[in-house]
Protein 1
Amino acid sequence: MAASPLPAPSNFIRDIIVEDLKAGKHNGRVQTRFPPEPNGHLHIGHAKAICIDFGLADEFGGHTNLRFDDTNPEKEETEYVESIKADVNWLGFQWDGLFYASDYFDQLYEWAVKLIKDGKAYVDDLTAGEIRQHRGTLTEPGKNSPYRSRAVEENLNLFERMRAGEFADGSRTLRAKIDMGSPNLNMRDPVMYRILHAEHHRTGNKWCIYPMYDFAHGQSDSIERVTHSLCTLEFQDHRPLYNWFIEQLGIFPSRQIEFDRLNLTYTLLSKRKLLQLVQEGRVNGWDDPRMPTLGGIRRRGYTPEAVRNFCGAIGVSKTNGSIELAMLEHFVREDLNKRAPRVMAVLRPLKVVINNYPENQVEEMDAVNNPEEASAGSRKVPFARALYIEQDDFREEPPKGYFRLSPGREVRLRYGYLVTCTGVVKNENGEVVEVHCTYDPATRGGNTPDGRKVKSTIHWVSAANALDAEVRIYENLFTKENPNEVEDGQDFTANLNPKSLEVISNAKVEPSLAGAAAGSRYQFERLGYFCVDPDSKPDKLIFNRTVALKDTWAKVEKKQGTKS
Ligand code: ATP
Ligand code: MG
């Protein structure tokens, strides 16, 4: 069951399901599966597959299994199994059946024996290298292995002994006897089983032969009576083989349908490459908020709703393309705008002293928690004589079009008062370290009883009441739209963005954030959306910037070339 249905733009997979239902196929049953290999953590590309597998089944009252495709014992670990389950749940989905390809090892072995008996599989003594040489190319047919015509009895005997552990790794394989001249290389006597004396995360040392992906996947689908087996386009050329095994074995006819893999600009979606980033210490682990893993984006503050909405909007197609990272961020902003409470935080503090404000007075100002959500209510924010504002919100010599605080200029302090800058204090380097203002007591709450206009409203925190915070600002992990585009001799790490993480250690946040729990999300007014990091402690708050608000001023300034 999904937490909420996918939006329903038409897509070709949905069309196929609708047709099948109309034709009464499978008695109107829709069964899908999500089949991750537990060799790494899930990323946003998997989220797309999950939303399709679970979302479509759900739409038609069907069921979805979570199946771990665990046929590579050397790369797979229980740790990944647990993380994948947690990630699927986090996205808002609950599987019906929980299975492992390894549940079917006995059945697969029996089916292999059946194919040998039917003369459709043989034990080959060629090495992996020799098999490759015999395979031919896209333009040349392959050559039959000299072992291809072994008698059924000999094949049965050798296969049994492969299983019994008599032979060394890689010394023999079981191959399907199909067609070495097929234009589809996958049909040129594909390997079904390999010898591998390796401990499996679930079956331990029971097996020393393991089925290949192609001899496990379709049959697993079939055992689970999967009606629509949805996968990415790289498996298209495997479909004839998927069907061949099902036909030869006469088992439930699952149908494989391929869709486009998600590619995102400035992002890599490959478990292998993400693993490299972790192992080389380029990021701080799998859940580094710069990682496109579900653990990473969760820590960053992305919501499952935003990810599902994004996946619904990108839909599916039959050709691979690339989606703008900005589109994903758009959905994150859109969702957080609805739900994130607003607070005031100052990332780069500049002290402001209001000369005519009573020395020891503190007023509790009313602040709206979320203008998008009336039920979110309001809170009190302390206002006092000494405040912090953003350094960016003051210019001693304002450029054209700059309307924030500057000498002689009046601005509104949000939920506070209107203040006018009367002077500055500079350090020995001539830098402004303190700004002096006067306030108009008649403008409490930011109102102007005489109707006078101020062009700018800025945020602030009371210096004496503010809490110290560390804020981690993230930028794209890669500098290139396609991080795989590199010069000769380089790898994708050459495109890592050296400025992808900036740590601001002396930010100031309003006191209502005291004790904010890890994972809580906020909008820091005028700055963006932020999420409390799990490293956060009551005496040292740590926030991750999830995504910035659109900063219109930065754009104007850049255009004008006035930014120093
Ligand atoms: P990776 O290359 O990152 O290791 P994978 O395809 O090997 O990915 P699996 O665990 O085998 O990962 O994938 C489980 C399911 O998720 C498959 O059906 C696969 O097609 C799908 N999937 C993986 N990556 C993407 C992606 N970028 N976009 C859409 N679906 C994906
Ligand atoms: Mg894979």
Protein 2
Amino acid sequence: MLPKKVEELCNRQIEREGYSSNLYLAMASWAENKGMTGIAGWLYAQADEERGHMLKFIKYLNERGGSALIPEFKQPPVKYKGIDEMFKEVLKHEQYITASITDVLEAAMAEKDHATVNWIQWFVKEQVEEEGSVQIILDKLSLAGEHGLYFLDRDIMSLRG
Ligand code: OFO
């Protein structure tokens, strides 16, 4: 049986993954309107992945005898100061998600819920990859300057893991 605390934190994670998806959609839409179609494409793909993460939590909860709750989502910001600032926001958000995944893992460990400890490892690994790939984009942005932004926008999809 799924411990109550783990169920609660998985439901919290459903909201956070769903919000991540909407946040990246909002960023994608903003970038697309600025003519950054490559960056928008990267963000749209990321938004799809986050929706997939939300679905994983929904299905896992229901499979384990819990109840997955579909929440309301707050509206993500509609404007961003620039591409650099936006990707800094992405990294900050992913670090927040990593901490949130760690909360689920630690609760599962405390409750001796080995099934969840085992299942959540996929997310632990995924977060390392996601933070890493956003960090690479930020490094490239700091090298690129205004001129190089064109090339980053053109090539960004090749940086997807
Ligand atoms: Fe990028 O976060 Fe989902 O897990």
Protein 3
Amino acid sequence: MATHAADAFTVQTVKPLIGAVVDTSREALLAGTHAEEIRQLLDERGVLVFPKVHFTDEEQVQFTRTLGNFVPEMHGDIFKISMDKAVNPQADYVKGAFYWHIDGTMQQVPLFASMLTARKLAPEGGNTEFCNTYAAWDALPEGEKERLKDLRVVHSLVAAQLYVEPEPTLAEFEGWSRLGTNELPLVWEHKSGRKSLVLGSTAEYVVDMDPVESRRLLIRLREWATQAQFSLSHKWELGDAVIWDNTGTMHRAMAYPLDCDRQMHRTKLEGEEAFV
Ligand code: OGA
Ligand code: MN
């Protein structure tokens, strides 16, 4: 692990419209010394990489807490992302992460941010990709913004799970349906005045639009938002920590062998703003 002067804090942009690599000491991260700058950077860059900081679970929780209101996972402070059912009984649900999504579109207030740390790497594949949905909105032609700005989209777990299991049993379908639907704006105007696109695998249809047109629009906008200039692919090194602004990005895991023991530990920060 690199050593740093106590006050070192350097930031390197990954791409003009997304991502930054933050180089500072783990002690400073744990003490919250740069918490304000990190919050600001998260807003501006969408995704922050802290290379090879090698947090323990307790340290990951401690660092996460410096940045906002910590949200525990269902079974403890940390969620272990793994396809091994002995490690993570919800492995099937994790497969949804292979498709572009925002965490928490079934809630009125989605998570502000999520953090992953790499504990076991996949032998091949397993990058995590991110795209900046603020930048994607900003770059749309004005006429298109005008046509899109008031559209509403119905989101459901059913839509997301159909990517994973396109031919479910009725019982599976009924299980997913229990979560119901959530109608969200296509264009989210944040308190800051900035706007972002709300898309992802839970997006089922655009309200009051012909079904084929609706599908065409959702696919076209996903393709637009995930173009190279708005996105980055993080190739994990053991011990990396990555945090993303879940309100202004989408993300997905790239394919990796399902029988490998890739393991990421996740912590979360509470949402601070409802979709409007
Ligand atoms: C998540 C997620 C992606 C990955 O934890 O919410 O989507 O690469 N993870 O594991
Ligand atoms: Mn996710």
